[in-house]
Amino acid sequence: MLAVFRKEMVDVMNEKDGKPDRKFWGRYGFNSYDTLLKVEPYVANLNEVADAVDPKIGWRILDAACGTGSLLKLLHEREPDCRFDGVDFSQEMLDLARAKVGAYAKLQNADLCETLPYDDASFHAVASVQTLYSLPEPQKALKEFRRVLRRNGRLVIVNAYDMKPLRILAAHYAAAWRDRSSVRLVTEVRNAPAITLLLGINALLAARRKSLNCWGVERMRFEVESAGFRMVRARDDAYERTSVFMVATAI
Ligand SMILES: C[S@@+](CC[C@H](N)C(=O)[O-])C[C@H]1O[C@@H](n2cnc3c(N)ncnc32)[C@H](O)[C@@H]1O
After folding, report:
1. What is the pLDDT of residue 15?
2. Is the pTM value of this prediction over 0.90?
3. 8 Å CB contact between 88 and 66
């Protein structure tokens, strides 16, 4: 595990512009990404996003940078009678997503920094979780989200402005402590190595925070409105006070 971690570290530290690249996300996906599904604040955040998307029968919904497909799965559980699409530029992430949601979601390899492979006004809702911060030009992606959304379509974004992996884990273990069951204790001990690896990868991202687009809520509001949206709500206490959570409407 340490060898894997060292390789991750060397890769991300070699980045020219300090941003994680396709290879980094591919390794993260392949090695450990779904360990996040064992981390309570991550799952709670995804559920909040699914609530905010609030899928309705017949909607077409895009998860922009769908990772391993966990949000698509939650959305499908809420309303199966929708058309689900997911894009990501990491083939490893997409392979994991395909195994999870391939039966009902159409997944494509696409780069959010380029034109998305959809017609104008294709979607009722677009969600993008914990991705804008890593893009070289998030503004371009926001404009693409506006283009592929219908008028009055819904945009839900979560984006980290701070990276505090220890705070996330503290919240996770606080929830485990409140649980105080022996089954939970055994589970936590078993999960500890994987969660430690995850913590290491997130610490690397945190170390690169200055070169990432970790926008606060005012900057996020400005960029989203500039891309053709009306803000419905925005707050900065999401994901254990590390992330902006915003909902906007395409105008
Ligand atoms: C932190 S993960 C978030 C994944 C998922 N949205 C979630 O919340 O679990 C960031 C994701 O963005 C993807 N990604 C990063 N840059 C991208 C780009 N330029 N185009 C498409 N996907 C990108 C990565 O491959 C990775 O799956």
Report:
1. 62
2. yes
3. yes
Q: Measured from the CA of 29, which atom of ligand 1 is nearest?
A: 27
User: Own/partner pairs for 16-22, CB < 8 Å, 24+ apart?
Assistant: 17/136, 17/211, 18/208, 18/210, 18/211, 18/212, 19/134, 19/135, 19/136, 19/208, 19/211, 19/212, 20/134, 20/205, 20/208, 22/89, 22/90
Query: Is the model's pLDDT at 115 over the cut of 90?
Result: yes
User: In the numeric block, which tokens belong to residue 46?
Assistant: 């995804």
pLDDT band at 10 (very low <50, low <70, confident <90, very high): low
Distance of CA 30 to the CA centre of its chain: 16
How do residues 14-56 score in pLDDT, each as one tens digit? 666 777 888 888 888 777 789 899 999 999 999 999 999 999 9
Please give the residue that has the higher pLDDT: either 181 or 54: 54
CB 130 within 8 A of CB 240: no
Q: What domains can be seen in the chain, in order of their start residue?
A: 2-250 (3.40.50.150)
Query: How many angstroms does the Cα of residue 67 sit away from the middle of ligand 1?
Result: 5
State the first-to-last Cα distance of the chain, in angstroms, to the nearest integer.
Answer: 48
Q: Report how far ligand 1's centroid is from the alpha carbon of 186 (Å).
A: 31
